């Protein structure tokens, strides 16, 4: 089967993003059902959600990977990606947003903006992704659209406006009022096959509808001259004028329209789908994609999203497959690719061959002969590609900006049960690390144990579970451990010289450098160029220093908040061996670090606990006992929300502990905040003093 007609104006590449339990996957399942992509409703709580295809997802009722599918609504093609909401899998969100044109941000109507909502919102901002908002669970006790819109303005700094208002809330929620067309959508039953009844707006909602419609118009008038003139002249504004202005403003990320519903109750999905095709961008609405320079391979450039352009695309996800080895998910930005084509992997400067092109529906697949600009497909046959790589026409190369992923904050040891299991363990971990850029695999220098490091306790639990069950590895899994960092307290200077003899010639290099604390988390390394010094010598010194900062002098943890400046280095035209420069630079850095009073730093998590007010005092006391700092308390209906910063070392098993303290009525969420210097008594304990 080949691809559908290439009318890119009718393509929508969108993702669904939210905090965990806001209803993303349930919303995705309803979208698939009402668009005819699936013929039965999958439910997260029953483990039958189509988009949650992994065993671990079905067992836990959460989304772990980004599942992709293609469906159709009113002759529009929607390439849909359902992303995880748990902070441990935020990398899945990151790489999905990198290739999407638009997004639906789902919020729990009773909770408003929650911690992971903020995280994914910032990710969408970073990639300039236009979005619409969907207030889900309007039938839930405590549902409050006004609270939600205020929290979005306050916490997300978002310009939001209602495009719909509800007809009733909580158990009385029966439908929505469309402020653009000024009509009501009423769901008379919760039957999954019941279409909404379109009616005139009931009298009791008419005044509110006019007020909120005027608010929407006045908001849009700030960005649309036609509406501005209509407002100033007090002229009647038509639905088409609002639609045109809203589409333009959404694409330019100047406004976020809010839609309402209850996915679980089968209410609000059809109007939401209409909003996707009316207001979110097609690939043609996105500016031409800018390429970056890759020295010695390709200059900067740009590509327009048309099938006639030279081919280019980004690999944004890799998935192990028992039948074909690996599936490489790719967003095609320009041109057309056919089965059997050879392409260039720009960042690796390697030729690759596409042996299969697949359109995915969660874990099912449909083979294609070709795919073109605007499509999201999976391809088979790549040998060198990793997440973030650009694939392009060999004769017309381009390179797109790759992706940045956060460093791990937690580790655990995995030990094969026999020496015969070691190879299988390493091969399996290599496959998992290829899939998941946030998973780091290393070997402890002290114990020789294999260590896996990731974004949180749940992240590593899932990895360990997949090793044992999916890859059939016989191994013992240790307890999670915090991944600390090291930094320096004072500036220092040092130097080192190193000599080695090769074929009766002695090569000597001397490197002098200074180090100082830096307020940036990343390490900054500066190596000045000298006239007449070959570029490979400068590169060798920098390479050695960048490699050395991955292991501090206290416990071997990565260095952060550090600026390294090479102040001088010797050069002898006869000393062409760059190894001596690497060793001298590494030793000089080690010497400086020992003089700079190094200290350990620990990851601190931003934690939000939602608990009945009767138990808030108990929760606050418990936070203090974990060396936490309470930042504030909010009221959310009859519940208290406790905001705090807590060191990660005090959070293992936290969810279980707070449920015990609150008789099962508290819940928490957390995400990484920052690193802080570890108290000296705890550092001494770790160092064995």
State the distance separating the first and last CA atoms: 68 Å
Strand content: 25-35%
Radius of gyration: 28 Å
Classified in CATH, the superfamily of the largest domain is P-loop containing nucleotide triphosphate hydrolases
State the domain count.
Answer: 5
Family: Belongs to the TRAFAC class translation factor GTPase superfamily. Classic translation factor GTPase family. EF-G/EF-2 subfamily.
Pfam family, one: EF-G_D2
Main location: cytoplasm
Domain Elongation factor EFG: 599-686
For the structure shown, list the relevant keywords:
689 residues; alpha+beta; Rossmann fold; Elongation Factor Tu (Ef-tu), domain 3; Alpha-Beta Plaits; 5 domains; eight-stranded antiparallel β-sheet; seven-stranded mixed β-sheet; 31% strand; globular
Question: How would you portray this structure in words?
Answer:
By secondary structure, the protein is of the alpha+beta class. It folds into five domains: 8-212 and 255-285, P-loop containing nucleotide triphosphate hydrolases (Rossmann fold, 3-Layer(aba) Sandwich); 289-392, Translation factors (Elongation Factor Tu (Ef-tu), domain 3); 410-482, 2-Layer Sandwich (Alpha-Beta Plaits); 489-597, Ribosomal Protein S5, domain 2 (2-Layer Sandwich), CATH 3.30.230; 602-687, Alpha-Beta Plaits (2-Layer Sandwich). 27% of the residues lie in helices and 31% in strands. The protein has an eight-stranded antiparallel β-sheet with strand order 18-17-23-14-15-22-19-20, covered by helices on one side. Strand 35 (629-636) and strand 36 form a beta hairpin. It is globular.
